[in-house]
Input
Amino acid sequence: MKKLSVIAAAACLGLMLSVSAAAAEKTDLVIAMDADIETLHPSDYSTTIEINILNQVYDKLIYMNPDGAEDPEPRIAESWEISEDGLDYTFHLRDDIKFHDGTPLTAEDVKFSLEMYQNSDYQSANVDGLDTVEVVDDSTVVCHLSSPYSPFLLGISACNIASKAYSESVSAEEFASTPNGCGPYRYVSRASGSNVVLEANEDYYGGAPEIKKVTFEVIPDTTTTAIALQTGEVNFAEIASSNLVMLESNPQITIAEAPTSGFTYLSMNLEKEPFSDVLVRQAINYAINRENLVMVCYDGKAEVNSNICAKSRFGYSDDQMQYGYDPEKAAELLAEAGIETPYDLGKILVAEKYENLATVIQADLAAVGLNTTIVKEEFNTFIGDLTSGNYDLCALEMTLEGDTQQLALAFTTDWIGMANNARYSDEEMDALFAEAGVVNDSEEREAIYDKIFTKAQDEAVYAVICNPQTLYAYSADLTVPEFVLEGYYYINQFSWNS
Amino acid sequence: MKKYVLKRILYMIPVLLGVAFLVFTILSLTPGDPGSIILGITAKPEDIAALNAQFGYDKPFLVRFFTYIGNIIFHFDLGISYSSRQPVINDIIARFPNTFLLAVFSMIVSAVIGVSLGILSAIRQYSVLDHICVVVALVFASIPGFWLGLMLLLLFSLKLGWLPSFGAASLKHFILPTITISLTSAAGLLRLTRASMLETVRQEYIRTAKAKGAPERRVIWKHALRNALIPVITTMGTSFGASLGGAIIAETVFAMPGMGTLLTNAIRQKDVPVVMGATLFLAVLFSVVVLVVDILYAFIDPRIKAKYQNGGRSRE
Output
């Protein structure tokens, strides 16, 4: 009898132990990334996944919601003011911030970091307009602009602040591979092609993060990612829409959608006939069934929008015209333009990953009597032909994120040969973008962008189709804040449900 | 024999130079430059030009080629990756062990399955076992690797939860990729071994061996198998050499960091130093494997052994 009670007690103890082990807080997080990173250099990065890791390790002067709708929030800078003439931005820094190696952050580090961006071949656009940086004292820094430039603050909000002393004490290679920031997570290790490990910075001035250890695992195949999410080996990942059905049916998984400013479009070479005729461009815009394309190519996970400006982006308005699916109107416009159908419109240039877009568009155009052939090229050749204007029509996706002013890249004469794929050149448009760049008043800027996008829609410069959404899938036990435009995430805002 | 091996090693030098020149030329002929590939179409031309100049990519083709070869010969330096700006050798060291282990495991498993079933099939030609082997081999030889890999993942990782779905952290992680690769290659080996055995047992010396009263077992193991294995070993050698270049599909499906994914990514990004470094590294290994296979022949085929012993000349 005594023996039995001992066993029972042991069993109870064992049960309690296992219960307490299960109830012990889960503090690790595994995130899948679809490609390896190349670098963790604070300014010389180029991919979204690099940005997502750097965002955890490095902090910025201020935080700004990329949609431009919210006021900036303080981060390293606790306050700031802009001079009357819009030329001087003064930032007052917190004095309690330390880098991960324990050295305090001072104004010299901010100056060093912004100058590093100025000299960067990769991300110098973030400091467009910046002329010189002046250190007033340890916690005050002034940015002098050469001329007023309204997107300056949004650009600065994307700049990682790195340690000057650290950059001087280590080799350039180590500076790029072993980041020393002041963000909520510190860098632990990286295995090439395999993973990146971060751990919580307990001294983070914004409070110690709840998730203590974060591992970014490289999983190139999207279906493998979907399986690993379900086995629990991965807790959070960006997923492909093709795996939605499999993941949505699993109650252990939550799916979230993040709007992006990226856009899917058909570019028409305005230097060629008949695309120089605005009627033809309007007809093409009316001929495309955008809802159908979004269902076929994005499994419904994209927002239909014929406007190059995403709906949640600053400067968008419902008053700006939208092209709906109207093949009869398209036929009328073609007749008005003097085009007799069937008409051979030329070739649609694509790279392999855009081929399904072209196939859907080709069918829509054929329905109004416009015949096209699809030409598929290897990606680098494709980009070469697109930027040099060696094409008729081209279907692709593009991202011009950051301030709405970035859309100047798609419309202004200076950018022909680069991101102005339509090779559109219009003095009025150039002047409007130039004006939008120097006006600081938010309402005035909005009015200028309204003119710009109304004009772009009237002239049907591009046939924009939709804004694809970024899809995230994560464990149902994980609490993740709602995603804002572009879908960047900050892991110190994540937590496991207890 | 020693002379022969030494000669073969010396032959490797022009082969490697040829490989280097060929790959370098092909990379130069492909469109795009590293600067614009890394920075994308929203970059300013002056930034692209500056980055290319930093890589030395603005210099003429021959200057770049000889600088590269010079650095290898005189400094043992494989260069710095354009995209990661880290020494190329680091990437190779990080990834090669995975690829090597995977190649070794897959070769062992596929050889054991393929050769043994191939022999069984051949000596019991037209039996039920033979028919099953031939049909199953045909099925596995025709199944695409990525599909097989995903099905294994769905079964063993998702449904049963026995094995991890990605990575290379432990030996357990190698089980599914090894099965994926070896089932396909075992099918090929089985068919090859079977065909080769069937051909060998019809040879006159087998009939002679049987006629002189040697037991069946001895005829098969001693006379037939040794001769039948020559083409099998050739195939295994070259396919092992090839799989050192990475089983790209298995590496992708099981997220295993290896040489295959390193090379494909580098080619896409026009990361010349990485492509060159990895290719040369693999070319050296491949040459060594081929050499080892040639030496192995001598131990298996008495006719070839006799040639070596006569200083490379045939006895006739």
Notes: Chain B is about 75% helix and 0% strand.
